Amino acid sequence: MNIHEYQAKQVLKGFGAPVAAGVAITSADEAEAAARQLPGPLYVVKSQIHAGGRGKGKFKELGPDAKGGVRLAFSIEDVVKNAREMLGNTLVTAQTGPAGKQVNRLYIEDGADIDRELYCSLLVDRSTGRVSFVVSTEGGMDIEAVAHDTPEKIVTIDIDPEAGVTPANVDEINTAYGLTGEAAEDGKSLFPILYKAFIDTDMSMLEVNPLIVMENGRLRVLDAKVSFDGNALFRHEDMKALRDETEEDAKEIEASEWDLAYVALDGNIGCMVNGAGLAMATMDIIKLYGKEPANFCDVGGGASKEKVAAAFKIITADPAVQGILVNIFGGIMRCDVIAEGVVAAVKEVGLKVPLVVRLEGTNVEQGKRILNESGLAITAADDLDDAAQKIVAAVG
Prior knowledge:
Blueprint: H1 5-14, E1 22-25, H2 31-36, E2 43-47, E3 58-59, E4 70-73, H3 76-86, E5 90-92, E6 101-102, E7 106-110, E8 114-125, E9 130-136, H4 143-149, E10 154-158, H5 167-177, H6 181-200, E11 203-214, E12 219-221, E13 225-228, H7 237-240, H8 250-257, E14 261-264, E15 269-273, H9 276-288, E16 295-298, H10 305-316, E17 323-330, H11 335-349, E18 355-361, H12 364-372, E19 378-381, H13 384-395
Parallel strand pairs: 15-17, 17-18, 18-19
Antiparallel strand pairs: 1-7, 2-4, 2-7, 3-5, 5-6, 8-9, 8-11, 9-10, 11-12, 11-13, 14-16
Pfam families: ATP-grasp_2 (PF08442), Ligase_CoA (PF00549)
Subunit structure: Heterotetramer of two alpha and two beta subunits.
Family: Belongs to the succinate/malate CoA ligase beta subunit family.
Protein backbone atom coordinates (compact mmCIF):
# COMPACT_ATOMS: atom_id res chain seq x y z
CA MET A 1 0.00 0.00 0.00
CA ASN A 2 1.33 3.42 -0.99
CA ILE A 3 0.66 6.69 0.82
CA HIS A 4 1.10 10.35 -0.08
CA GLU A 5 4.24 12.36 0.66
CA TYR A 6 2.57 14.45 3.35
CA GLN A 7 1.34 11.29 5.09
CA ALA A 8 4.80 9.70 4.88
CA LYS A 9 6.28 12.79 6.51
CA GLN A 10 3.70 12.66 9.28
CA VAL A 11 4.68 9.04 9.94
CA LEU A 12 8.39 9.84 9.98
CA LYS A 13 7.85 12.93 12.14
CA GLY A 14 6.11 10.70 14.66
CA PHE A 15 9.37 8.76 14.99
CA GLY A 16 11.39 11.96 15.39
CA ALA A 17 12.66 12.63 11.86
CA PRO A 18 13.28 16.29 10.92
CA VAL A 19 10.68 17.48 8.39
CA ALA A 20 9.50 20.93 7.37
CA ALA A 21 6.19 22.37 8.53
CA GLY A 22 3.42 21.83 6.00
CA VAL A 23 -0.33 21.74 5.49
CA ALA A 24 -2.28 19.42 3.15
CA ILE A 25 -5.27 20.88 1.30
CA THR A 26 -7.94 19.55 -1.07
CA SER A 27 -9.39 22.88 -2.22
CA ALA A 28 -7.80 26.04 -3.58
CA ASP A 29 -9.95 27.98 -1.13
CA GLU A 30 -7.83 26.47 1.65
CA ALA A 31 -4.51 27.60 0.17
CA GLU A 32 -4.28 31.06 1.75
CA ALA A 33 -5.09 29.84 5.25
CA ALA A 34 -2.60 26.99 4.85
CA ALA A 35 0.20 29.31 3.75
CA ARG A 36 -0.45 31.67 6.65
CA GLN A 37 0.31 28.83 9.06
CA LEU A 38 3.87 28.63 7.70
CA PRO A 39 6.84 30.94 8.37
CA GLY A 40 7.53 31.86 4.71
CA PRO A 41 8.61 33.84 2.79
CA LEU A 42 9.40 30.81 0.60
CA TYR A 43 6.69 28.17 0.13
CA VAL A 44 6.61 24.94 -1.87
CA VAL A 45 3.36 23.81 -3.50
CA LYS A 46 3.49 20.06 -4.07
CA SER A 47 1.06 17.86 -6.00
CA GLN A 48 0.13 14.79 -3.99
CA ILE A 49 -0.21 11.78 -6.27
CA HIS A 50 1.11 8.24 -5.98
CA ALA A 51 3.89 8.70 -8.53
CA GLY A 52 7.41 10.06 -8.66
CA GLY A 53 8.87 12.66 -10.97
CA ARG A 54 6.26 15.26 -10.00
CA GLY A 55 8.59 18.22 -10.34
CA LYS A 56 9.43 17.29 -13.94
CA GLY A 57 5.84 16.38 -14.78
CA LYS A 58 3.47 18.38 -16.94
CA PHE A 59 -0.21 19.16 -16.57
CA LYS A 60 -2.30 18.02 -19.52
CA GLU A 61 -4.62 20.99 -19.34
CA LEU A 62 -2.01 23.75 -18.93
CA GLY A 63 0.17 23.38 -22.00
CA PRO A 64 3.86 22.49 -22.42
CA ASP A 65 5.20 25.77 -20.97
CA ALA A 66 3.39 25.47 -17.65
CA LYS A 67 5.30 24.69 -14.47
CA GLY A 68 5.39 21.14 -13.13
CA GLY A 69 3.78 19.45 -10.17
CA VAL A 70 6.17 20.90 -7.56
CA ARG A 71 6.44 24.69 -7.52
CA LEU A 72 8.19 27.38 -5.52
CA ALA A 73 6.06 30.31 -4.38
CA PHE A 74 7.47 33.55 -2.98
CA SER A 75 4.23 35.00 -1.62
CA ILE A 76 0.90 33.83 -0.28
CA GLU A 77 -0.75 35.18 -3.43
CA ASP A 78 1.56 33.02 -5.51
CA VAL A 79 0.62 29.98 -3.39
CA VAL A 80 -3.08 30.58 -4.09
CA LYS A 81 -2.45 31.10 -7.82
CA ASN A 82 -0.52 27.84 -8.11
CA ALA A 83 -3.11 25.94 -6.10
CA ARG A 84 -5.88 27.08 -8.44
CA GLU A 85 -3.84 25.97 -11.47
CA MET A 86 -2.87 22.57 -10.08
CA LEU A 87 -5.88 21.18 -8.22
CA GLY A 88 -8.24 19.18 -10.38
CA ASN A 89 -5.87 18.99 -13.33
CA THR A 90 -4.05 15.90 -14.64
CA LEU A 91 -0.34 15.58 -13.95
CA VAL A 92 1.68 13.37 -16.30
CA THR A 93 5.05 12.10 -15.07
CA ALA A 94 7.46 9.38 -16.12
CA GLN A 95 5.79 7.07 -13.60
CA THR A 96 2.11 7.81 -14.31
CA GLY A 97 2.18 6.88 -17.98
CA PRO A 98 0.52 9.08 -20.61
CA ALA A 99 -2.87 8.96 -18.87
CA GLY A 100 -1.47 10.84 -15.86
CA LYS A 101 -3.16 11.25 -12.48
CA GLN A 102 -5.61 13.89 -11.37
CA VAL A 103 -4.27 16.09 -8.58
CA ASN A 104 -6.84 16.08 -5.77
CA ARG A 105 -4.49 17.12 -2.95
CA LEU A 106 -1.69 19.62 -2.49
CA TYR A 107 0.91 19.93 0.23
CA ILE A 108 1.88 23.51 1.07
CA GLU A 109 5.28 23.31 2.75
CA ASP A 110 7.74 25.73 4.25
CA GLY A 111 10.74 26.31 1.99
CA ALA A 112 14.32 25.33 2.79
CA ASP A 113 17.75 26.78 2.04
CA ILE A 114 19.50 23.81 0.45
CA ASP A 115 23.24 23.28 0.42
CA ARG A 116 23.37 19.63 -0.78
CA GLU A 117 20.87 17.02 -1.96
CA LEU A 118 21.40 13.35 -1.05
CA TYR A 119 19.56 10.11 -1.82
CA CYS A 120 18.50 7.67 0.90
CA SER A 121 16.25 4.64 0.78
CA LEU A 122 15.55 1.57 2.85
CA LEU A 123 14.35 -1.70 1.39
CA VAL A 124 14.62 -5.44 1.88
CA ASP A 125 17.68 -6.75 0.06
CA ARG A 126 16.59 -10.17 -1.18
CA SER A 127 20.19 -11.26 -1.74
CA THR A 128 21.01 -10.89 1.97
CA GLY A 129 17.55 -11.18 3.55
CA ARG A 130 18.20 -7.95 5.45
CA VAL A 131 16.94 -4.39 5.43
CA SER A 132 19.50 -2.24 3.64
CA PHE A 133 20.24 1.45 3.32
CA VAL A 134 20.83 2.49 -0.28
CA VAL A 135 22.59 5.85 -0.25
CA SER A 136 24.06 8.18 -2.83
CA THR A 137 25.44 11.69 -3.01
CA GLU A 138 23.33 12.18 -6.15
CA GLY A 139 20.08 13.25 -4.48
CA GLY A 140 17.18 14.77 -6.36
CA MET A 141 17.84 12.57 -9.40
CA ASP A 142 16.20 9.36 -10.58
CA ILE A 143 18.11 6.63 -8.78
CA GLU A 144 17.72 4.41 -11.87
CA ALA A 145 19.67 6.95 -13.91
CA VAL A 146 22.38 7.12 -11.25
CA ALA A 147 22.60 3.32 -11.17
CA HIS A 148 22.94 3.22 -14.94
CA ASP A 149 25.36 6.10 -15.46
CA THR A 150 27.42 6.22 -12.25
CA PRO A 151 26.83 3.02 -10.24
CA GLU A 152 29.93 3.69 -8.18
CA LYS A 153 28.05 6.56 -6.52
CA ILE A 154 25.55 4.18 -4.91
CA VAL A 155 26.48 2.50 -1.63
CA THR A 156 24.47 -0.27 0.03
CA ILE A 157 24.73 -0.90 3.77
CA ASP A 158 23.07 -4.03 5.19
CA ILE A 159 21.70 -3.83 8.73
CA ASP A 160 22.00 -6.74 11.14
CA PRO A 161 18.42 -7.35 12.37
CA GLU A 162 19.64 -8.30 15.85
CA ALA A 163 21.87 -5.25 16.31
CA GLY A 164 19.85 -2.65 14.42
CA VAL A 165 21.61 0.47 13.16
CA THR A 166 24.94 0.52 14.97
CA PRO A 167 27.38 3.43 15.35
CA ALA A 168 29.55 1.65 12.76
CA ASN A 169 26.62 1.65 10.31
CA VAL A 170 26.06 5.37 10.92
CA ASP A 171 29.75 6.09 10.35
CA GLU A 172 29.59 4.13 7.08
CA ILE A 173 26.55 6.10 5.90
CA ASN A 174 28.05 9.44 6.96
CA THR A 175 31.27 8.56 5.13
CA ALA A 176 29.37 7.61 1.98
CA TYR A 177 27.66 11.00 2.05
CA GLY A 178 30.77 12.90 3.11
CA LEU A 179 28.93 14.37 6.10
CA THR A 180 30.77 16.28 8.78
CA GLY A 181 29.93 18.56 11.68
CA GLU A 182 26.28 19.07 12.57
CA ALA A 183 25.08 17.04 9.57
CA ALA A 184 27.07 14.01 10.76
CA GLU A 185 25.68 14.49 14.28
CA ASP A 186 22.14 14.62 12.86
CA GLY A 187 22.89 11.39 11.01
CA LYS A 188 23.56 9.63 14.32
CA SER A 189 19.90 10.13 15.26
CA LEU A 190 18.21 10.23 11.85
CA PHE A 191 19.43 6.94 10.35
CA PRO A 192 18.33 4.83 13.35
CA ILE A 193 14.99 6.71 13.26
CA LEU A 194 14.42 5.80 9.61
CA TYR A 195 15.27 2.17 10.32
CA LYS A 196 12.94 2.02 13.33
CA ALA A 197 10.09 3.55 11.30
CA PHE A 198 10.69 1.00 8.54
CA ILE A 199 10.65 -1.98 10.91
CA ASP A 200 7.95 -0.88 13.32
CA THR A 201 5.37 -0.11 10.62
CA ASP A 202 6.25 -3.00 8.27
CA MET A 203 7.29 -0.81 5.38
CA SER A 204 8.39 -2.49 2.18
CA MET A 205 10.10 0.66 0.89
CA LEU A 206 11.11 4.03 2.32
CA GLU A 207 12.68 6.56 -0.03
CA VAL A 208 13.92 10.00 0.96
CA ASN A 209 14.88 11.84 -2.22
CA PRO A 210 16.23 14.26 -1.55
CA LEU A 211 17.58 14.12 1.95
CA ILE A 212 19.07 17.59 2.21
CA VAL A 213 21.89 19.28 4.03
CA MET A 214 20.62 22.80 4.67
CA GLU A 215 22.79 25.90 4.60
CA ASN A 216 22.80 25.87 8.40
CA GLY A 217 24.44 22.42 8.26
CA ARG A 218 21.42 20.41 9.49
CA LEU A 219 19.77 17.41 7.83
CA ARG A 220 16.11 17.44 6.75
CA VAL A 221 13.79 14.97 5.03
CA LEU A 222 12.67 17.06 2.05
CA ASP A 223 10.64 14.38 0.27
CA ALA A 224 9.42 10.96 1.34
CA LYS A 225 7.87 8.02 -0.43
CA VAL A 226 6.57 5.08 1.60
CA SER A 227 5.06 1.71 0.72
CA PHE A 228 3.75 -0.73 3.32
CA ASP A 229 3.68 -4.52 3.14
CA GLY A 230 0.03 -5.25 2.41
CA ASN A 231 0.29 -8.61 4.16
CA ALA A 232 1.15 -6.84 7.43
CA LEU A 233 -1.51 -4.13 7.42
CA PHE A 234 -3.70 -6.13 9.79
CA ARG A 235 -1.18 -5.13 12.45
CA HIS A 236 -1.40 -1.42 11.63
CA GLU A 237 -4.93 -0.03 11.57
CA ASP A 238 -3.50 3.49 11.85
CA MET A 239 -1.47 3.00 8.67
CA LYS A 240 -4.34 1.29 6.88
CA ALA A 241 -6.42 4.41 7.54
CA LEU A 242 -3.99 6.40 5.35
CA ARG A 243 -5.05 4.52 2.21
CA ASP A 244 -6.31 6.79 -0.59
CA GLU A 245 -8.46 4.66 -2.86
CA THR A 246 -8.85 7.50 -5.38
CA GLU A 247 -5.20 6.88 -6.30
CA GLU A 248 -5.82 3.20 -7.03
CA ASP A 249 -7.38 1.35 -9.92
CA ALA A 250 -11.01 0.48 -9.09
CA LYS A 251 -10.46 -3.06 -10.34
CA GLU A 252 -7.47 -3.51 -8.04
CA ILE A 253 -9.52 -2.29 -5.08
CA GLU A 254 -12.29 -4.79 -5.82
CA ALA A 255 -9.72 -7.54 -6.30
CA SER A 256 -8.19 -6.82 -2.89
CA GLU A 257 -11.63 -7.31 -1.30
CA TRP A 258 -11.62 -10.86 -2.72
CA ASP A 259 -7.98 -11.40 -1.71
CA LEU A 260 -6.95 -11.61 -5.36
CA ALA A 261 -3.51 -10.56 -6.60
CA TYR A 262 -4.51 -8.23 -9.43
CA VAL A 263 -2.52 -5.55 -11.26
CA ALA A 264 -3.94 -3.63 -14.21
CA LEU A 265 -1.65 -3.41 -17.26
CA ASP A 266 -1.83 -1.69 -20.64
CA GLY A 267 -2.57 -4.61 -23.00
CA ASN A 268 -5.77 -6.16 -24.35
CA ILE A 269 -5.65 -9.83 -23.31
CA GLY A 270 -7.01 -10.52 -19.85
CA CYS A 271 -5.29 -13.25 -17.84
CA MET A 272 -6.61 -15.40 -15.01
CA VAL A 273 -3.99 -17.76 -13.62
CA ASN A 274 -3.16 -19.53 -10.35
CA GLY A 275 0.35 -18.92 -9.07
CA ALA A 276 2.59 -15.90 -9.63
CA GLY A 277 5.21 -17.84 -11.61
CA LEU A 278 2.62 -19.28 -13.97
CA ALA A 279 1.07 -15.82 -14.33
CA MET A 280 4.43 -14.36 -15.34
CA ALA A 281 4.97 -17.18 -17.85
CA THR A 282 1.49 -16.61 -19.26
CA MET A 283 2.12 -12.90 -19.75
CA ASP A 284 5.50 -13.61 -21.33
CA ILE A 285 4.10 -16.03 -23.89
CA ILE A 286 1.31 -13.62 -24.82
CA LYS A 287 4.00 -11.03 -25.56
CA LEU A 288 6.02 -13.67 -27.45
CA TYR A 289 3.13 -14.10 -29.88
CA GLY A 290 2.73 -10.38 -30.44
CA LYS A 291 0.10 -9.15 -27.96
CA GLU A 292 0.13 -7.50 -24.54
CA PRO A 293 -1.48 -8.69 -21.29
CA ALA A 294 -4.21 -6.47 -19.86
CA ASN A 295 -3.61 -7.57 -16.29
CA PHE A 296 -1.80 -9.79 -13.85
CA CYS A 297 -4.41 -11.84 -11.99
CA ASP A 298 -3.44 -14.64 -9.62
CA VAL A 299 -6.44 -16.34 -7.99
CA GLY A 300 -4.16 -18.31 -5.65
CA GLY A 301 -3.87 -21.95 -4.82
CA GLY A 302 -7.09 -22.45 -2.88
CA ALA A 303 -9.65 -20.26 -4.64
CA SER A 304 -13.36 -20.98 -4.34
CA LYS A 305 -15.88 -20.98 -7.15
CA GLU A 306 -17.07 -17.55 -5.97
CA LYS A 307 -13.54 -16.15 -5.94
CA VAL A 308 -12.91 -17.38 -9.49
CA ALA A 309 -16.19 -15.84 -10.64
CA ALA A 310 -15.23 -12.52 -9.01
CA ALA A 311 -11.85 -12.55 -10.77
CA PHE A 312 -13.50 -13.24 -14.10
CA LYS A 313 -15.95 -10.36 -13.62
CA ILE A 314 -13.16 -7.95 -12.69
CA ILE A 315 -11.25 -8.88 -15.86
CA THR A 316 -14.27 -8.51 -18.13
CA ALA A 317 -15.09 -5.11 -16.59
CA ASP A 318 -11.96 -3.67 -18.24
CA PRO A 319 -13.08 -2.12 -21.56
CA ALA A 320 -9.58 -2.64 -22.98
CA VAL A 321 -9.89 -6.44 -22.74
CA GLN A 322 -10.50 -7.96 -26.18
CA GLY A 323 -9.88 -11.56 -25.19
CA ILE A 324 -9.34 -13.66 -22.06
CA LEU A 325 -6.92 -16.48 -21.34
CA VAL A 326 -7.58 -18.71 -18.32
CA ASN A 327 -4.50 -20.81 -17.55
CA ILE A 328 -4.75 -23.12 -14.54
CA PHE A 329 -2.45 -25.82 -13.27
CA GLY A 330 -4.33 -27.73 -10.61
CA GLY A 331 -2.13 -28.71 -7.72
CA ILE A 332 -3.93 -27.59 -4.60
CA MET A 333 -6.38 -25.81 -6.89
CA ARG A 334 -8.89 -28.14 -8.55
CA CYS A 335 -9.65 -27.71 -12.22
CA ASP A 336 -13.35 -28.48 -11.74
CA VAL A 337 -13.67 -25.59 -9.27
CA ILE A 338 -12.07 -23.25 -11.78
CA ALA A 339 -14.39 -24.48 -14.51
CA GLU A 340 -17.47 -24.00 -12.32
CA GLY A 341 -16.39 -20.48 -11.45
CA VAL A 342 -15.76 -19.54 -15.08
CA VAL A 343 -19.10 -20.96 -16.22
CA ALA A 344 -20.96 -19.19 -13.41
CA ALA A 345 -19.30 -15.86 -14.21
CA VAL A 346 -19.91 -16.13 -17.94
CA LYS A 347 -23.58 -16.91 -17.38
CA GLU A 348 -23.90 -13.90 -15.08
CA VAL A 349 -22.00 -11.24 -17.04
CA GLY A 350 -22.15 -12.68 -20.55
CA LEU A 351 -19.27 -13.35 -22.92
CA LYS A 352 -18.53 -10.58 -25.39
CA VAL A 353 -14.91 -11.44 -26.15
CA PRO A 354 -13.05 -14.67 -27.07
CA LEU A 355 -12.26 -16.93 -24.12
CA VAL A 356 -9.55 -19.61 -24.19
CA VAL A 357 -9.14 -21.98 -21.25
CA ARG A 358 -6.21 -24.26 -20.55
CA LEU A 359 -6.58 -26.66 -17.63
CA GLU A 360 -4.09 -29.20 -16.34
CA GLY A 361 -3.69 -31.12 -13.09
CA THR A 362 -6.12 -32.13 -10.35
CA ASN A 363 -9.59 -33.10 -11.64
CA VAL A 364 -8.69 -31.84 -15.12
CA GLU A 365 -11.09 -34.20 -16.90
CA GLN A 366 -13.99 -33.08 -14.71
CA GLY A 367 -13.06 -29.47 -15.41
CA LYS A 368 -12.95 -29.97 -19.15
CA ARG A 369 -16.29 -31.78 -19.07
CA ILE A 370 -17.91 -28.89 -17.19
CA LEU A 371 -16.65 -26.44 -19.83
CA ASN A 372 -17.61 -28.66 -22.78
CA GLU A 373 -21.11 -29.27 -21.46
CA SER A 374 -21.73 -25.62 -20.54
CA GLY A 375 -22.99 -24.69 -23.99
CA LEU A 376 -20.80 -21.58 -23.88
CA ALA A 377 -18.41 -20.34 -26.58
CA ILE A 378 -15.28 -21.40 -24.72
CA THR A 379 -12.19 -22.52 -26.66
CA ALA A 380 -10.21 -25.30 -25.02
CA ALA A 381 -6.42 -25.49 -25.28
CA ASP A 382 -4.08 -28.46 -24.84
CA ASP A 383 -1.12 -26.60 -23.33
CA LEU A 384 0.14 -23.08 -22.65
CA ASP A 385 1.69 -22.60 -26.06
CA ASP A 386 -1.51 -23.73 -27.76
CA ALA A 387 -3.57 -21.48 -25.48
CA ALA A 388 -1.47 -18.40 -26.19
CA GLN A 389 -1.59 -18.90 -29.95
CA LYS A 390 -5.35 -19.41 -29.89
CA ILE A 391 -6.15 -16.28 -27.85
CA VAL A 392 -3.77 -14.11 -29.89
CA ALA A 393 -5.32 -15.40 -33.11
CA ALA A 394 -8.83 -14.84 -31.75
CA VAL A 395 -8.05 -11.25 -30.77
CA GLY A 396 -6.44 -10.69 -34.17
